[in-house]
Write a structure and sequence with these properties.
Layout (H helix, E strand, L loop, with lengths): L4 E5 L4 E9 L2 E9 L22 E2 L3 E2 L3 H5 L4 H5 L12 E6 L4 E6 L4 E5 L4 E7 L4 H21 L11 E6 L4 E5 L3 E8 L2 E9 L4 E6 L6 E5 L4 E4 L8 E4 L6 E6 L6 E6 L3 E6 L5 E6 L4 E6 L5 E6 L3 E6 L7 E7 L5 E6 L5 E6 L3 E6 L8 E6 L3 E10 L4 E9 L6 E9 L1 H4 L13 H4 L2 E5 L3 E6 L4 E6 L4 E6 L11 E2 L3 E4 L6 E5 L5 E6 L3 E6 L5 E6 L8 E6 L5 E6 L5 E5 L5 H31 L7 H15 L5 E2 L6 E2 L11 H16 L1 H27 L15 H42 L1 E3 L3 E3 L6 E3 L3 E2 L3 H28 L3 H17 L3 H6 L22 H54 L35 H22 L2 H10 L30 H135 L1 H4 L5 H12 L26 H16 L11 H68 L30 H57 L5 H8 L3 H72 L2 H46 L4
Parallel strand pairs: 9-13, 33-37
Antiparallel strand pairs: 1-2, 2-3, 4-5, 6-7, 7-8, 8-9, 10-11, 11-12, 12-13, 14-15, 15-16, 16-17, 18-19, 19-20, 20-21, 22-23, 23-24, 24-25, 26-27, 27-28, 28-29, 30-31, 31-32, 32-33, 34-35, 35-36, 36-38, 39-40, 40-41, 41-42, 43-44, 44-45, 46-47, 48-51, 49-50
Helix pairs in contact: 11-14, 14-17, 17-21, 20-21
């Protein structure tokens, strides 16, 4: 631990500040500590802005930081953390330093951390595992502690992971404590600790402090109690100091008011203080939340009001041992303030909701409750004035009236007769009668927050709306026109701010004003001049809560609101007249109270102590609420007994509740007979009504009465009906609002999903199959979309025309143009099937125009990709439109088929009716999916609930129904229609369809026997039978015709519907293909969108890196400036240091010269004393053997303190008693001054050396920081280079979509080849390469054949040469023989050649053949050269195109190089550029060396190839 480190702790973060000193400058360096998460896990730090490595994904692109993906550029990019990485960390609560520069820290989560201040890293300490027997013992102890806490009613304490709020470190280990109130000792080794419980004080411990000798440990609790603990003895804690645990609520003087005072805190702790020196004499804790306190003037009793509505009365006759003697439970309302009158006769208690209780303040009356009043408004303040002459007590109450912006005063009087004959002045419920208290009411012109009243009807009020004090005189002269409003006589400006209050001195001479600013002002009541002022409390602590004057006026008690301070003021300078007036008033009052005080104190001492019962106190509140509701009497139907809702005991019941209970009991006893008679009458009436209701159920429905008619309580019935109507209206309104919301939602959905669609979504279903085809719902394209599409198409046309012009300019001659057009035509013929593969979709076959699209290999720029997306969306729209046209055709076809089927069904129904067949006719119809408009309208048949009609609508329907019924009855009473139906079946002409219904009536004599018939009758009967037979034959013939027609109709319906089903199935298959095409285009859009997004992320990353680079460069400039400044300071300080060394040496060398007058023997002794130095000074501090921080290193500033101590030690050596014998005193004094100068010089040199060392260390750290920043800048440049390379790759490495045929390629193995390093090139390049390879192969074969023929000719010539040599030899022999003959040359030639003419002709023919062969060879060589020229021209064109691309790339590279050069020059990176130049120079040398090696290897390879050819020719001469 040293002074060069600071630990800064907040609720959720820890920061270590390193302090670096540079002579007279101090630099702070911030180092945040990464804390573990809430589970105690220390996660490794991840640098999201600079990832460790870049993973290359050939499909998804480079792995970029999260900040670049989020689009952040500035400082947010460096600190951005996704939600997944953000985990809540532990919350520090306490920490302490160790001797090894470590920090131990406690957390709310129960963990103990060890923080290394040098590395700024945190580790979680783990508890060392205990042996098995220790674990069992620990469990037993923990169980016992939990049981003890449960019995005490407290919370169980977690001893395994306690929350620590205080720590103290020593050599033995770490002491810690927290809210559990237990002192723990941690024995820490490494990252493990053993825990030991030292003490348990049962109070939350807030801080731990060791004594300077580390033998005693102080424990301070939240309640202000201080304990001591001695670690060496391991004993119990000893209470050293017990202070107030909460803020003071109120304070008052104990009668007679000149010796003691009493205070109470908000937690209910009562203290008795000695006014002389402020000593706390005694304490009493009530263990309840107090709200008010007051001391009785007539006895040594104290009243304390609580929040639960209780008043505790304390006996303080013995100031060393106060006790509770009585408790009064007034009501459930909290007691806000308590006020005694000056005579000590009455105690006025102010409660909430306008309740004011009057109590007898005397212990002899057992603090009897005399009565209470209830005011209409909220009570703000209360003032009491005693009238000793008339034996009255006047009470003034300040009310807060919400309706008006004015204050209202109510004044009532209390007479002493109220204590003697109380029943006359209160009613049965304890409320004071209005006549007894003589209540008066006054309205003031300003709103007030506090008011006090003097005896002569003068009122002072503290204004609530403005900082001034108003004075009122309650007389008729000061009234406004409105007789109830009083004007202020005087307004005194107040120098205070915030809400305040007023208090009056006992003699009514001084008016005290206090407010939130904490300043107390005292005014003269008559002149309102400021008599005195004192700043007692601070505004931050809430100012002044309450203040009170002593009865003699010598003391003033003031307590703050939240600062926990109680101030007692005493007059220093005061006029004698003021003292006399206060003393005379006190003497007169003391004379009145003296006798009653002694009597009441005797009674108070004799009272027994009241016993606390926390359970009854805590349970009294709900019982009290029950008692207040006891006025509601509950009468049962069986026996009519009256039951009170209040069942609490008298002790736990409020005084009001007891009064109400008593009233109910008396009324019950008084009216018992009347209640019994009423109950009997009610029983008889109930029986009568039940009998009538039973009889009503037996009568017919027309005579029955409604249930509500038996209700005798008409008013209750009307009230219930009104409530029901209100509920119905409320429910109807809710339903209407819900319906309105649903209609709005319907309109929104309809507008978005229906009205905005130019093509509505619908479906077509098959008749006999579960097949359904849906169309594509399309929104009408907006004008903006159409304008963008038009712009894109126009720009595409311009780019196409520009590309054609560029291609024409690159063509050099017409032959190459013709050859290129021929090649393009061939390629067009060959790539007709491959065009779909290259475009990546089949949209051109399904209504899309792919000719307007960019080629997939040309999408390099962002604008091209955006335009391509627009064009692809247009193609998708056209494809969907094309399908919708076919869909509409099929939908219309189905409507036509349904119409035909309906026509045929009409005929089928007619035939079935004629044949009397029960045939179920199949009626096809369109579903809701096929007619989606049907969903927008509600048919009457869809409503299953009966429609609610009002009376007016019912009357209107009845009026409309009457004329309709009259017309119906008139139509039924038509004589002509009745006659036609009776005579001819309702028709005038018999149709063929009615032949089946025709029947020939039998003759009238058919009922007679046949033997009775005559001849004419028999003839008639035979004619009748013939007609019947003919009719039956005609019926049968017609029936068969109808049956055949019925079968044909059914068959035609079946065939046509099945044909339509096949059409729908084909449409469904086509829909699948359309979906495939749409998905292909959408896949292109997704790939392009992803490429655009990746490009934007790379741009964001580059911008973020440049911003970060700029910050680093600024830091570098700043550090460079600091380094230069430090170097200058070091140089200047080095000169000073060297001068000090020289001066020190000069002092030593000049000692002999200075004391040359001293004898030699004394000079040597003086020189030894000159070099002698005192021992290290020992301070008067104790030897800190237990102090863990005893050996901490100091700084250069400690040299000044050491010099001071050394100079004090030198004073002892300078005393004359150390003077050598025989030395003069003046020389000794001169020697002492010289030695002191020498010592000061030596200390100064050492101090300067330490300072110089610190400055050099500071310079070295800054230089290390500079090197680190340089390294960071270099890393940033590398990252920028990588980003630019990735951007270039993204522009060149495109994602191409292909359509490949399946089943074309078979793999020998099941492994899929790896195509990660494959390169995608055009097919034409492969074909050109194959053609060149085939041409070279043919040339090689031709050369090999030529070589073979040439070799054969050589062998033939060799044989011929050998043959000719032999012939030459023969001929030479013959020639020698012939030479011997005497012949001429011609003859010799003639003789040599057998046929001279043929020889000449043969020679001519050989020459001609040779010429012809040479011509052929020449033509062949010319053709080869021409072919080679064409190839070279083609290669020249390719090289020119490549050179053109390279020139474009060269321009871009030159631009990037110039940008980088400017960046390097602006970034002051000369050393980095030199390093890059050297690295580039080494790469050039390496490339040069490699080229030389390649050239040598090529030459060696050519030599070896020639050798191989030579060896091949030797091995295979025939080839």
């Amino acid at each position: 631990m040293n002074w060069q480190q600071l630990c800064f702790v907040t609720e959720s973060a820890v920061t270590i500040w390193h302090i670096e000193r540079n002579n007279d400058e101090h630099h702070l360096k911030q180092n945040p500590v990464k804390l573990p998460d809430g589970q105690g896990t220390v996660n490794p730090h991840k640098d999201l802005f600079f990832p460790v490595s870049h993973s290359e994904d050939p499909y998804h692109g480079p792995d970029l930081p999260v900040s670049a993906i989020a689009g952040l550029v500035g400082d947010e990019a460096e600190t951005f953390m996704p939600r997944d990485y953000l985990k809540p960390s532990v919350h520090p609560t306490a920490h302490c330093w160790t001797a090894t520069s470590e920090v131990y820290m406690g957390c709310k989560e129960g963990y103990v951390l060890a923080i290394d201040a040098e590395r700024c890293s945190a580790s979680v300490l783990q508890q060392k595992p205990l042996p098995e027997y220790m674990c069992k013992l620990s469990d037993i102890v923990s169980y016992a502690r939990r049981e003890v806490q449960k019995r005490k009613g407290g919370k169980t304490k977690n001893l395994q992971k306690p929350v620590l709020f205080a720590m103290a470190f020593c050599k033995e280990g770490l002491y810690a404590a927290g809210s559990e109130g237990i002192l723990f000792f941690y024995h820490i080794k490494g990252l493990q600790y053993e825990i030991k419980i030292c003490a348990d004080i049962l109070q939350p411990i807030s801080s731990l402090i060791f004594s300077p000798d580390y033998t005693i440990l102080l424990l301070v609790t939240d309640q202000g109690t201080v304990y001591t603990y001695k670690p060496a003895h391991s004993g119990e804690t000893v209470k050293l100091l017990d202070t107030c645990s909460s803020c003071f609520l109120a304070a008052d003087f104990l009668t007679p008011g000149n010796k003691y005072c009493v205070s109470v805190t908000t937690s209910g702790e009562v203290q008795v203080w000695l006014l002389e020196d402020g000593t706390c004499l005694s304490k009493l804790n009530l263990d309840i939340e107090a709200t008010a306190m007051a001391c009785c003037p007539s006895s040594n009793s104290v009243a304390v009001g609580t929040k639960r509505g209780q008043i505790y009365f304390l006996d303080v006759t013995k100031v060393e041992a106060p006790r509770v003697v009585h408790r009064t439970f007034l009501s459930k309302f909290p007691v806000l303030s308590l006020h005694y009158d000056q005579s000590g006769q009455f105690l006025i208690a102010r409660a909430t909701e306008g309740h004011i209780f009057i109590l007898d303040a005397r212990p002899s009356k057992l603090f009897q409750v005399l009565g209470y009043i209830v005011l209409a408004d909220e009570v703000l303040d209360l003032s009491v004035v005693s009238d000793f002459r008339n034996d009255l007590v006047e009470v003034m109450v300040l009310l807060n009236v919400a309706e008006i912006q004015r204050a209202r005063l109510e004044i009532f009087c209390l007479s002493s007769a109220l204590t003697t004959d109380n029943d006359k002045y209160v009613d049965e419920q304890g409320m004071l009668n209005a006549n007894a208290i003589k209540k008066e009411q006054y309205d003031l012109d300003y709103p007030l927050s506090s008011a006090v009243r003097l005896k002569d009807n003068i009122v002072y009020g503290y204004c609530a709306c403005a900082p001034f004090i108003c004075k009122y005189h309650l007389s008729e002269e000061n009234m406004l026109e409105d007789p109830s409003v009083f004007l202020s006589e005087k307004r005194t400006p107040s120098k205070q701010f915030g809400s305040g209050f007023l208090r009056l001195s006992p003699n009514s001479r001084w008016l005290a004003s206090a407010a939130k600013d904490g300043v107390l002002f005292i005014y003269h009541t008559f002149t309102m001049d400021i008599f005195a002022q004192k700043h007692c409390h601070s505004y931050q602590g809430g100012g002044i809560r309450s203040m009170v004057f002593s009865l003699d006026g010598k003391f003033i008690l003031i307590n703050g609101k939240n600062d926990g301070a109680l101030v007692c003021l005493k007059w220093k300078k005061i006029k004698k007249t003021e003292v006399k007036e206060a003393a005379s008033h006190w003497q007169s009052l003391f004379a009145i109270l003296n006798k009653s005080t002694s009597n009441e104190n005797v009674v108070l001492k004799s009272m027994t102590e009241w016993q606390f019962d926390p359970e009854s106190t805590s349970a009294s509140l709900p019982e009290e609420e029950a008692s207040l509701r006891s006025s509601n009497v509950e009468m049962t139907e069986e026996d009519g007994n009256v039951t009170s809702l209040c069942s609490a005991s008298t002790d736990d019941m409020t005084w009001i509740g007891q009064k109400i209970k008593k009233v109910i009991r008396e009324e019950t006893q008084r009216f018992a007979n009347q209640k019994e008679e009423l109950q009997m009458g009610i029983k008889k009436l109930r029986k009568t009504i039940q009998k009538m209701m039973h009889e009503n159920e037996q009568v017919p429905d027309a005579e029955k009465l409604e249930q509500h008619e038996f209700n005798l309580d008409i008013e209750e019935m009307e009230r219930a009906r009104a409530e029901a109507e209100q509920e119905v209206a409320r429910v109807r309104k809710e339903i209407e609002m819900e319906n309105l919301a649903n209609r709005y939602l319907q309109d929104v959905i309809k507008h978005e999903c229906w009205d905005a669609m130019c093509v509505k979504g619908r479906a077509v279903k098959c008749f006999h199959m579960a097949c359904e085809v849906k169309n594509y719902p399309l929104k009408e394209r907006s004008e903006e979309e159409l304008e963008i599409l038009e712009k894109v198409l126009q720009s595409k046309k311009i780019e196409t025309a520009d590309l054609k012009v560029q291609k024409k300019s690159l063509e050099t001659d017409s032959e190459t143009l013709l050859s290129m057009e021929g090649e393009k035509a061939e390629e067009g013929m060959a790539s007709g099937s491959a065009s779909y593969c290259l475009t990546g979709s089949l949209s051109s076959q399904y209504g899309g125009d792919t000719s307007i699209l960019y080629h997939q290999w040309d999408l390099h720029t962002r604008e091209q990709k955006v335009n391509q997306i627009v064009l692809l969306k247009d193609i998708i729209y056209k494809v969907k439109t094309a399908f919708n046209k076919e869909f509409d055709t099929v939908a219309r076809q189905k409507e036509q088929e349904i119409a035909r089927v309906k026509e045929r069904n009409v005929r089928i129904q007619e035939i079935s009716a004629q044949l009397d067949l029960q045939v179920e006719v199949w009626e096809p119809s369109l579903t809701d999916d096929e007619i989606p408009e049907r969903a927008l309208t509600v048919q009457d048949s869809e409503i299953k609930v009966e429609k609610y009609l009002t009376e007016q609508e019912i009357e209107k329907e009845e009026m409309l129904a009457k004329p309709e019924m009259e017309r119906h009855f008139a139509a039924m009473d038509n004589e002509r229609l009745r006659a036609l139906n009776d005579m001819m079946g309702g028709v005038l002409e018999v149709k063929k369809e009615d032949i089946l219904k025709m029947d020939i009536p039998p003759p009238p004599f058919i009922s007679k026997p046949e033997d009775v018939w005559n001849d004419e009758e028999k003839k008639i009967f035979r004619e009748h039978e013939q007609k019947v037979k003919e009719l039956n034959e005609e019926k049968e013939k017609y029936r068969r015709a109808l049956e055949n027609e019925l079968k044909k109709l059914e068959t035609s319906i079946q065939e046509t519907t099945q044909t339509f089903d096949e059409t729908v199935c084909k449409l469904s298959e086509k829909k699948v293909k359309f979906e495939m095409v749409i998905y292909q285009e959408e896949l292109k859009i997704v790939n392009l969108t992803y490429a655009l997004m990746l490009d934007e992320e790379l741009n964001t990353r580059e911008a973020g890196l440049r911003n970060f680079l700029m910050k680093k460069e600024k830091e570098k400039v700043k550090i460079a400036r600091i380094i230069q400044t430090t170097k200058n300071k070091i140089e200047a300080y080095t000169d000073t240091y060297e001068n000090a060394i020289v001066e020190d040496k000069n002092l030593e060398s000049g000692f002999t010269k200075e004391f040359a007058d001293v004898p030699a023997n004394l000079l040597d002794e003086l020189f030894q004393l000159y070099k002698h130095r005192p021992k290290a000074p020992v301070t008067e501090m104790l030897l800190d053997t237990a102090n863990p921080y005893g050996d901490c290193p100091g700084s250069a500033e400690d040299g000044k303190d050491a010099l001071t101590l050394s100079m004090k030690a030198m004073d002892e050596l300078d005393s004359p008693e150390h003077r050598p014998n025989g030395l003069d005193l003046s020389i000794w004094e001169r020697f002492c001054r010289a030695r002191q100068n020498k010592m000061e010089s030596e200390k100064l040199v050492k101090w300067k050396a330490l300072t110089l060392e610190e400055m050099q260390a500071f310079l070295q750290r800054r230089m290390n920081d500079n090197e680190k920043i340089k390294s960071d800048i270099e890393d940033i440049f590398q990252e920028l280079t990588w980003v630019q390379e990735e951007k270039m790759k993204l522009e060149l490495n495109l994602t191409i979509q292909f359509l490949l045929k399946q089943g074309q390629v078979e793999l020998e193995s099941t492994e899929i080849p790896d195509y990660t390093d494959a390169i995608l090139i055009n097919k034409s390049i492969i074909e050109e390469l194959n053609c060149s390879i085939m041409a070279q192969g043919e040339k090689k074969i031709a050369s090999m054949v030529e070589y073979k023929d040439f070799s054969k000719g050589m062998f033939r010539l060799e044989w011929e040469h050998k043959k000719m040599r032999m012939q030459i030899e023969d001929l030479k022999q013959k020639a020698q023989d012939i030479l011997r003959l005497p012949i001429t040359k011609d003859r010799q030639l003639f003789l040599t050649v057998p046929n001279h003419d043929s020889h000449i002709a043969h020679h001519i023919s050989v020459m001609e053949q040779t010429l012809g062969l040479m011509d052929k060879l020449h033509e062949k060589n010319v053709k080869n050269r021409q072919k080679r020229i064409k190839e070279l021209e083609k290669s020249i064109r390719l090289k020119e195109q490549a050179n053109y691309k390279l020139s474009l790339e060269l321009k871009e590279m030159l631009v990037s190089v110039s940008e980088k050069r400017h960046i390097f020059e602006a970034a002051d990176t000369q050393h980095i550029s030199e390093k890059i130049v050297k690295q580039r120079y080494r790469e050039i040398l390496k490339q040069k060396h490699l080229r030389r090696c390649v050239r040598e290897q090529e030459e060696e390879f050519e030599v070896l190839q020639a050798e191989v050819e030579r060896l091949r020719s030797r091995t295979f001469p025939a080839l």
